[in-house]
Design goal:
single chain, about 170 residues, mainly alpha, two-stranded antiparallel ribbon, elongated
Length: about 170
């Protein structure tokens, strides 16, 4: 399980860095568009379409970092009051439910990505931009999230989750 967890961490790092490259493209592109509008009175052709695709890449490839760092939104009001063992089991069950949701999203996304690739789908706009590659990345991100959630479920349920992943609840 440690080897699988280490592999999942490495893959999430690679996907996260790819997501950050798309975030940089998005930031510099929007900055260039604002400057072009101010100077020339026109936007950069194709930037709107590329921004849409970049957002997909940032969200679905950056999902691994979010899951790994427990940076997603969750409510632990009930589980914080449980004893350690039931808390671990509830956490593991919650991660398995998350994995199921990811799988339910990944399957139709994969079918749509395969169809999109088969027709070499592109988006009409100011510029024609192929979108099949983002659909493939979206599906891959969801499949990876499902695997990552299963690994996290086992680690949480067996109390082998890394301590930095679970910050102590704030005392009021």
């Amino acid at each position: 399980m440690d080897i699988l967890n280490a592999t999942v961490r490495r893959v999430s790092d690679v996907l996260g860095w790819v997501a950050m490259v798309f975030m940089a493209i998005l930031m510099f592109g929007v900055t260039a568009d604002v400057a072009a509008r101010a100077i020339y009175g026109q936007s950069v052709p194709g930037l709107f379409e590329m921004s849409e695709l970049s957002m997909v890449m940032v969200v679905f490839l950056g999902l691994g970092w979010t899951l790994r760092d427990d940076a997603h939104i969750r409510v632990t009001m009930l589980t914080d009051r449980l004893a350690p063992r039931p808390r671990r089991l509830a956490g593991g069950l919650a991660w398995l439910c998350a994995a199921l949701v990811f799988l339910l999203l990944a399957w139709p996304s994969t079918q749509e990505a395969a169809y999109s690739f088969s027709i070499r789908e592109f988006r009409w706009g100011v510029v024609q931009i192929p979108i099949w590659w983002t659909k493939i990345a979206l599906a891959a991100g969801l499949w990876f999230a499902a695997v990552q959630a299963v690994v996290k479920a086992v680690l949480v349920a067996t109390d082998r989750d890394l301590p930095e992943s679970h910050p102590a609840p704030a005392e009021y």
